[in-house]
Structures are given as C-alpha cells and as structure tokens.
Amino acid sequence: MSMLRYSRVLLKLSGEALADGDEQFSHQKLSDLAQVIHQAVQSGVQVAVVCGAGNIFRARQANLGVLGRVAADQVGMLATIMNAAVLRDYLRAEGQQARIFAPREQVPLAEAFTRDKALSLLKAGQVLLLAGGTGNPYFTTDSAAALRALEISADGLLKGTQVDGVYDRDPHKYPDAERFDHLTYDEVLARKLRVMDLTAITLCDEGNLSVTVFDISDPENLLRVLKGESLGTRISKESPR
Fold first, then answer.
1. Neighbours of 78 (CB within 10 A)
2. In 64-115, at which residue ranges do the beta strands (DSSP E only) sit?
3. Which helix (H) or strand (E) is 13 found in, with range?
4. pLDDT tens-digit map of 123-169
C-alpha cells in the first residue's frame, strides 16, 4: 500500500459490523475485518479499534423491567469487551498480535488502559482493542472512541458504518437523501446530523481530530480510506480549500 494518508488511526466499529442478521457474530465478516486490519498494520499503519455492542445488547433500547440506565450501560460496556475478545482471536488467526484494554482491568480478558503502554504496543505493531467504553454510564462508544483517539494521538477517527457516509436524512427511508462529501463540525451541529453524539463531536472538534464515516460492509474500504481515496464523508474543523 503506497501514499498512505494516515500513520495511526482509531477504527470505530458498530456491533452490527460483526453480526449477520439475527446471528450475533458472523464468521465471514469477522474474518474479512481481521484480514484488512492485518493488511493495514503490515503496510505500516498503527491501528486501534473500538467496537460497539449493538449485536449483543443495546443499553438505550433495553426494556428489562427493573433494569435502570446505569446498570444497562454497565451491561453494554461488558458486551463491548466480549466483542473485543472475539475480534482479538480472529486477528490472531491472521497472525496479527492484538491486546484488549479497558478502563479497568477485567481479568483475564482486558488490561487497564494506560497511554504509555498503548503507544508502546502500537509502535510494536500490535492492534489495540479498546473496550469497556469510557468506564462510566451515560457515555456512548462513540464518545469512548473520540476520547481514546485523542489519547493515543491518532491522525484520524475512522467510523465504519452500514451506509456510505453522512446524509441529510435517513437514506433507507428517503431515496432522495443527500450525501455529504465533507462537513465541518459546526455544520454537523447546526444541521443536527446524527453522526455521533454531542460529546464525541465536541471532543473531536476541540481536539482538531478529523472523522471519516464510510461503509465498512465492504472491509476493503478501510484500505481505500487509509490510502486517501475520496470515500464516505470527511468531517473536520474547517472546509477543504
């Protein structure tokens, strides 16, 4: 891979990126993702990954009687560690070393996140699976992704979704929905576009961290984004000249 745009990225994946229909985990999707992540590392890109947990548990949509928001968020954070453990083993099957970090140690799966150790492992060619959210309820995995991306000084946050960018409205419901090639953070907020939650947007804006939203249903798109191909929607502090 030549002419890489990034040297260190944080890849944000939804739980659905690992699933297939009613199946919580898709062997094919996980294999394909592991292959392209390994290829990215082999090309010289340092990669950290944050997974959501929508394939296992959606805290905000949970309707379990007495289960409150705090407990639901805690269950969701545990589910992200489960996803990280599955993806880790698929990466290892590709010959790619990978480690799981969480806000607090979760023996035997996850170590407690520290910036110094994370940076050391990234430079050594390991993939970091950053699970467990921020460790606190009321924060989404998008917020966790933005936080960790800034902590590891990533060149960009790449958000792999099931659509090919950011639209002015739901493209599944409205065939004439408009897709944006580029947006500023101010435009995202002014248009109330549902890219990430407000906390994540604010963190990226204040940290001058670009976000690229692209379709991960074809995992090869990750390699295209890393090469700088115009794919999906790029969000940054200012419009390109």
1. 18
2. 98-102, 111-112
3. strand 8-13
4. 999 999 999 999 999 999 999 999 999 999 999 999 999 999 999 99
Match domain 8-236 to its CATH number in 3.30.457.10, 3.40.50.2020, 3.40.1160.10, 3.30.420.40: 3.40.1160.10
User: What is the distance between the alpha carbons of residues 80 and 170, in angstroms, rounded to a whole number?
Assistant: 26
In Å, the largest CA–CA distance within the chain is 54
For residue 214, what pLDDT is reported? 97
Helical (H) or strand (E) element with 190: helix 185-191
Please state, in angstroms and rounded to a whole number, the distance separating the CA atoms of residues 88 and 106.
15
Q: Which residues fall within 8 angstroms of residue 149, CB to CB, at 6 or more apart?
A: 10, 48, 156, 157, 204, 207, 209
The count of other CB atoms within 10 Å of the CB of residue 162 is 11
Token pair belonging to 106: 């979760």
Q: What is the reported pTM?
A: 0.94
